Amino acid sequence: MTTRVIIVDDQAMVRAGFAALLAAQSDIDVVGDAPDGVQGVALSRRTHPDVVLMDVRMPEMDGLEAARQLLDPPLGVVHRPKVLMLTTFDVDDYVYEALRAGASGFLLKDAPPADLISAVRVVAAGEALLAPSVTRRLIADFARRPAPRRDRGALRLNGLTPRETEVLELIARGLSNQEIAEALILAEQTVKTHIGRVLAKLELRDRAQAVIFAYESGLVAPGER
User: Fold this and answer.
1) I need a surface site. Which of 102, 144, 179, 219 has the fewest CB within 10 A?
2) Which of 130, 116, 111, 98 is nearest to 30 (CA)?
3) Contact predicate 67/103, CB 8 Å
């Protein structure tokens, strides 16, 4: 199955370079590009891509607001693409907020070409592009922020089984599915089933939002091991 992609970035050379790289893959089809968030949202509404590569900082409308509009569309708009944020910076407030809004992860623009291709495939498959190194930076960010109100999150946690709660905690600590399976002595497919149930019960889009929820609800605190 071919993955449909659009590229939203204010630098024409970036758009052209990424498009050429991705279009060379037999399983990826680049169906358009746009120079800012306003045009990117409109293009996505027209072309219905599976994945949107979205630059964080752009004129007219930045990537954060564009991601919000795509992931929380107005009444009558049913298409919700996966959004992969592109940035020249490491995790900053823009990327953090984009993950909270439902973006499936982020990629540095200077990442190797193979990483870009892999990222598109991972996100298209419904996984979050949230490596353990990214998780550690998010944890450090939480440690610097004021403690959030946790009442609602704690109530939602009550709907999880003990095993599902364990799985969520290990996701928040940056473990992969295989590592969670080894830690809990489970089959990897069983772990995937538990993760699917956690996301459904907590009404979360993907692993990235699960990590953020685990910290904001108080299930895991920065600095804990």
Assistant:
1) 144
2) 116
3) yes
